[in-house]
Specification:
The chain is mainly alpha-helical and about 160 residues long. It has a domain of about 100 residues. Helix content is about 40%, strand content about 0%. It has six helices and no strands. The model has no long low-confidence stretch (mean pLDDT about 80).
Length: about 160
């Protein structure tokens, strides 16, 4: 029985055939999602201005907001994990998640939803008559008695705990 050395395993890896099959391309039906120009014209003015916080004013170039919006809306539409964005050509998952948190803290999505409701009301009209302004979810004060018999003694027998 011979003992394998580190050199033997390196030689074995070198002799192992390289992968010849190409990576499967991304499904364009799902990953080719981009925010439309009409939607972007409504969304862009709601975004907060970015302030460069790098101490020397430099740093890595910022990923464009539109690319991050594409990634964020893709995650919200499909329900995939943020890190799954790394396999698409949209945006990095960590960048999209960071930008999502920034925009959520700034109230961008609430303003966007409000703007969408206003636009829908202008185009389609919302029937506000059926909505309720008041409601309560409490127990009835005189709910009545229980419908079952109460036991007369404990079910424990012979010192059971």
């Amino acid at each position: 029985m011979t003992k394998r050395t580190k050199k033997d395993s390196t030689i074995a890896e070198a002799l192992k055939p390289k992968r010849t099959r190409r990576r499967t391309p991304n499904n364009k039906t799902t990953t080719n999602f981009h925010v439309s120009d009409a939607l972007w014209t409504v969304f862009q003015p709601l975004l907060p201005l970015h302030k460069n916080t790098h101490r020397f004013g430099g740093g890595r170039p910022r990923v464009p907001d539109r690319k991050c919006a594409d990634g964020i809306f893709y995650v919200l539409r499909t329900g995939c994990q943020w890190k799954a964005l790394d396999e698409t050509e949209l945006c990095s998952g960590s960048t999209a998640h960071t930008r999502f948190q920034e925009w959520e803290a700034a109230g961008v999505f609430l303003k966007f939803w409000q703007r969408g409701v206003e636009c829908f009301d202008e185009v389609q009209g919302i029937d506000w008559a059926w909505l309720s302004l008041d409601g309560a979810m409490t127990k009835a004060p005189l709910g009545g008695e229980k419908k079952r018999r109460e036991p007369h003694r404990s079910r424990e027998t012979r010192g059971q705990a």
